[in-house]
Write a structure and sequence with these properties.
The complex is a heterotrimer of chains A (324), B (378) and C (262). With 324 residues, chain A is an alpha/beta fold. Helix content of chain A is 25%, strand content 28%. In chain A, β7 and β8 form a beta hairpin. In chain A, α4 packs across α5 and α6 runs parallel beside α9. Chain B has 378 residues and is α/β, with parallel strands linked by helices. Chain B folds into three domains: 85 residues, Alpha-helical ferredoxin (Fumarate Reductase Iron-sulfur Protein, Chain B, domain 2); 149 residues, Rossmann fold (3-Layer(aba) Sandwich), CATH 3.40.50; 124 residues, Rossmann fold. Chain B contains 17 helices and eight strands. In chain B, strands 2-1-3-4 form a four-stranded parallel beta sheet. The radius of gyration of chain B is 20 Å and the shape is globular. Chain B starts with 7 loop residues before the first helix and ends with a helix. In chain C, α3 packs across α4. In chain C, the strands form two sheets. A nine-stranded mixed beta sheet of chain C has the order 9-8-7-10-6-1-4-5-11, sandwiched between helices. Chain C has one domain: Rossmann fold. In chain C, a hairpin with a 3-residue loop joins β7 and β8. By secondary structure, chain C is an alpha/beta fold. Chain C contains seven helices and 13 strands. The chains are: A alpha/beta (324), B alpha/beta (378), C alpha/beta (262). Chains in contact: A-B, A-C, B-C. Chains A and C meet through α5, β7, β8, β9 and β12 of A and α3, α4, β7, β8 and β9 of C. β17 of chain A pairs parallel with β13 of chain C.
């Protein structure tokens, strides 16, 4: 039987998006392998989460024990190691997240099982499980095949696929924890929330960078409002920091910071080579500039040739509508 | 080259200083930043204080324009005291990340722009360029400069030179991708060890070529080779000198007219440090239709654009007006249509200032080769 | 404190065009620049900072070609004490589990308090080697660490979770930490420092020298096969969004939302 054991990820009382995204991959793989999906929840007090997960038409198994109140890689590894022995799933799948990367490689070594990390696709073809992953910051795709094994370990990249809508009613079942004793060699201490107002743009996920095109300080609120709506940090080109619109520690470029956000919105930035050098690590670049010849367009994924002051207010409206 | 046993005072001849203050008096940076070079020369006598002095932020405000050196009655180079203090920081490893990355890129890839060496000659694509070979005689051996090779904004300088010289039938060749940074900015940033290595390696490399002379495109390379490479076999000139020769020989065939007022900005490394003032002016004046203007502060007194001295990688903490902005406003007052320069750094900083002041519509910043590319048959 | 820091020499492909070689399994690396892997650079700095604070030694271990010696010399110039470079064509380096096994084999005779390595490699991005290594050598670990506090016999590690949240964990030493970028500001290795570091030991070893059975770390031992590499079909040039300003805004908003970018 080719069952897929899907380890659900949750934090601070809520399921994380990756859990639902895996629902777009796991059922098809399980079906092709002639098995079914079991979603596993490990934690403490998770009835709501279990119910929500079961709405995807899967069997949900819950290990509910105060010992698992906070994520702990060692404990997860122990539980999954025991469950692999007991249930012999064909595939153990979880997210390539701060949680998944913290125990899956160790589990693979312990159980002598193959691991493919950060897959963006997974399919079972002619008796072989194959994963697609990316290399060289997404410039190359790699097709990786598992050699036959008892259980295949795979982690799925966050945001690689869209989460499906809930499908059908599933079931919820509590199971016993394969271990009871707590461990002492690795202890959870606390969570520390990110400090507010202390922005390190080198770590930002979404950045709106403004340039000379902002023209004057009084246009800043327009940008700040947009940033607030999409949880972006605001940075600037040398011109923008020079003008005092943006603090110096938020300057992007060779004489400022090198940033690598997932999304970089360049507003009124021409894209001088010295600026581009600081943001070339951005995953997706959107550029809005009046000048169709602006070099920023050469590094952009999406380009709008227009007056930013005409586009930005409309953009903010539309985003609000779409995101609800 | 300095020997390890020299004291700081001996190395920079601090005892030769008479504290007249002409250095600070002429320093263009004083209006913008809290930098008093005379005071540094004075305080650096005390070896115990060097560490403390090296931590002062203003040592990074110096643009290495050399005004202080030009003005010093004792023939000293006060700016090099600041560079010496930078060296203390660089050798501790605690430099700004931007400086760190630039220096490391010079070591690993031969350029400060974090570009792959393999891409150094990409600018040649589609052009008929002869690549120099060691031992193969050539009249003019071109050294392209890291910034011109990699920054698309100024690549036209090299591309236009190639077209123009091909048309004029000049014997020339460019170096292959093994060409490495001249070390101009490495020197001013104070990475002495790396600079010594570049001088040694570049001297050995360039001496393999049988050229009558080496022609540099950037005044930074020009002055650095002339000043810091004592064992270089071949004479070094700046491209404006070569073109001036062609002008004299009647080999530049003009086309079209440029009915514009042009003001020439003397790059510090070409003028004050290289002693070249007239060649670029003659080239501009000869473009049909051009009216050549002069800044009040021109030639030896030219105002620095703040592009040198490693400033491409160090942002000043000062929020006062940039010197490049002052320069552009001066040009505006002269009613100039074009501000011309013959240095990639000057073009980048002045153009930035021009846009900053919102003069894009009525003013243009151009490298001389960009203009010649448009008005000489090629 | 004795720390072992594991580093990797990787190509910078952020601006370069990447081409797959005719074998379909490797990329043409002739136009790339190479340097220490980003996160590993921070691991080196962290190991040196700990040494400066607590005393002790730092060993560098790296699997890579001769030309990566310059990267190792830089680490030595920054304050690491000695280095071992492993070079052997038989290592199945597409599989981080095999890489971890080789690293474990190279350090098996060493006493240590900490092993540090970058949490991710710029090139293949598995984020797996460090955690697998911890299991191989049988010690505790924490991944994606953005702050380290060395205590008596323990280490407090701040793990960076998604959305700026930090998870603080306490581990008994010895332990493996995989280091996240931004944990410190890596210093510059000046040339004079690199020259002085020429005196430090840099040994080169193959699998046989390390008594590692090639059959356990080679392509046969790896349970995954890299079938082929290909360039994903993405338009390299920007997609220009056309229309009136409002239409453009609407189209962009929909791209951002549907693409999960915001």
């Amino acid at each position: 039987m080719g069952n897929v054991l899907l380890l659900a990820e949750h934090r601070q009382g809520a399921l994380r998006d990756i859990t639902f995204e895996m629902m777009a991959i796991a059922p098809k793989v399980a079906e092709d392998m002639g098995g079914e999906v079991t979603a596993l929840l490990i934690g403490s007090g998770m009835d709501d989460m279990a119910k929500k997960l079961s709405e995807y038409g899967v069997k949900v198994q819950v290990i509910d024990d105060p010992v698992f109140e906070n994520f702990n890689a060692e404990k997860y590894q122990k539980v999954l190691s025991a469950l692999i022995d007991e249930k012999k799933p064909a595939v153990l799948m979880t997210g390539q997240t701060a949680q998944g990367v913290d125990f899956m490689p160790a589990l693979a070594v312990e159980k002598k099982l193959p691991l493919v990390a950060e897959a963006v696709g997974l399919e079972y073809v002619d008796g072989t499980l194959k994963a697609t992953r990316q290399m060289y910051s997404g410039k190359v795709s790699a097709s990786v095949a598992f050699k036959p094994a008892e259980t295949y370990l795979v982690t799925i990249r966050e945001g690689a696929v869209e989460a499906p809508e809930p499908a059908a009613a599933g079931s919820v079942e509590k199971i016993d924890s394969p271990f009871k004793e707590d461990i002492t060699y690795r202890k959870f201490v606390e969570y520390i929330e990110a400090e507010v107002g202390d922005v390190d743009i080198t770590q930002s996920e979404i950045l709106i960078a403004v340039g000379r095109g902002l023209k004057e300080d009084k246009n800043m609120p327009l940008i700040e409002e947009l940033a607030q709506g999409i949880k972006a940090d605001v940075a600037g080109s040398r011109a923008a920091t020079d003008a005092g619109w943006i603090p110096h520690d938020r300057q992007v470029g060779t004489s400022g910071k090198t940033v690598k956000p997932k999304l970089y919105l360049a507003m009124g930035i021409s894209g001088a080579f010295q600026h581009v050098a600081g943001m070339k690590g951005a995953k997706t670049v959107v550029a809005i500039n009046k000048d169709p010849e602006a070099p920023i367009f050469a590094v952009a994924d999406y380009a709008i040739v227009d007056d930013m002051f005409k586009v930005v207010p409309a953009l903010q409206e539309k985003l609000k509508e779409l995101k609800g | 080259m300095s020997s390890e046993s020299q004291t700081f005072t001996e190395k920079y001849d601090l005892l030769g200083c008479i504290q007249c203050g002409r250095c600070t008096g002429g320093c263009p940076v004083t209006v913008r930043a809290d930098l008093n070079v005379r005071q540094f020369v004075n305080n650096a006598y005390d070896e115990d204080k060097l560490e403390e002095l090296s931590r002062l932020a203003e040592i990074w405000d110096c643009t290495a324009c050399h005004t202080c050196a030009v003005r010093c009655p004792k023939g000293l180079k006060p700016l090099e005291v600041l560079i010496g203090l930078r060296t203390i920081i660089v050798e501790s490893g605690k430099v700004e990340p931007t400086v760190r990355d630039a220096l490391q890129s010079v070591l690993l890839e031969g350029n400060p722009w974090e570009k792959s060496r393999a891409m150094r000659t990409d600018w040649m694509e589609g052009l008929d360029v002869k690549i120099a070979e060691p031992g193969e005689p050539v009249e003019n051996l071109f050294f392209v400069c890291c910034t011109i090779a990699y920054d698309p904004r100024v690549q036209a300088v090299a591309r236009n030179i190639v077209r123009l010289l091909n048309k004029a039938g000049v014997d020339f060749a460019f170096l292959p991708e093994e060409e490495s940074c001249c070390g101009s900015e490495v020197f001013t940033i104070g990475e002495e060890g790396l600079f010594e290595m570049l001088v040694e390696d570049n001297t050995e490399y360039l001496n393999e070529f049988k050229a009558e002379r080496i022609v540099t495109l950037s005044p930074h390379c020009f002055t650095t080779y002339k000043t810091h490479y004592p064992d270089l076999k071949n004479p070094v000139i700046h491209y404006t000198q070569l073109l001036d020769e062609l002008l004299e020989e009647g080999k530049l065939v003009w086309k079209g007219e440029l009915q514009k007022k042009i003001v020439f900005h003397d790059p510090c490394y070409l003028g004050k440090q290289g002693g070249i003032y007239d060649e670029p002016r003659r080239l501009l004046k000869n473009i049909p239709g051009v009216e050549l203007l002069e800044f009040d502060r021109s030639r030896e007194r030219s105002l620095c654009c703040e592009g040198g001295g490693g400033k491409m990688w160090v942002e000043s903490t000062s929020t006062k007006e940039r010197l490049a902005d002052v320069r552009i406003r001066d040009a505006k007052e002269l009613d100039a249509d074009i501000v011309a320069a013959a240095c990639p750094f000057c073009v980048l900083t002045l153009e930035d200032a021009m846009k900053n002041l919102g003069y894009e519509e009525e003013m243009r910043v151009a490298e001389i080769m960009e203009l010649l590319g448009e008005f000489v048959e090629a | 404190m004795k720390t072992i820091v594991c580093i990797k020499y990787v190509p910078d492909t952020s601006e370069a065009e990447v081409k797959v070689n005719p074998d379909g399994k490797t990329v043409d690396n002739s136009r790339f620049s190479y340097d220490i892997n980003d996160a590993d650079n921070y691991a080196v700095e962290e190991s040196v900072l700990i040494k400066e604070d607590k005393g002790g030694e730092v060993d560098v271990v790296s699997i890579g070609p001769k030309k990566s010696d310059v990267m190792i010399r830089m680490a030595l110039a920054k304050g690491c004490d000695r280095a071992k470079r492993i070079e052997d064509e038989r290592i199945a380096d597409h599989d981080p589990l095999m890489v971890a096994k080789v690293l474990a084999g190279a350090i098996k005779s060493e006493e240590f308090d900490l092993i540090m390595t970058g949490c991710m490699a710029n090139d293949d991005g598995h984020m797996s080697t460090g955690v697998a290594l911890a299991e191989e050598v049988g010690v505790n670990h924490a991944s994606m660490v953005k702050k380290v506090e060395v205590l008596d016999g323990k280490v407090k590690a701040h793990r960076e979770l998604e959305g700026g949240l930090m998870e603080v964990v306490e581990l008994e030493l010895p332990a493996v930490l995989t280091i996240q970028t931004g944990i410190n500001e890596p210093r510059y290795a000046p040339i004079r420092g690199i020259r002085q570091a020429q005196k430090k030991e840099l040994s080169v070893a193959g699998l046989d020298d390390l008594s590692i059975d090639p059959a356990e770390v080679g392509a046969e031992a790896s349970q995954v096969v890299l079938e082929n590499l290909y360039i994903p079909e993405v338009e390299s040039a920007a997609e220009f969004i056309e229309g009136e300003p409002e239409e453009k805004a609407e189209k962009l908003a929909s791209i951002l939302v549907k693409g999960g970018l915001v």
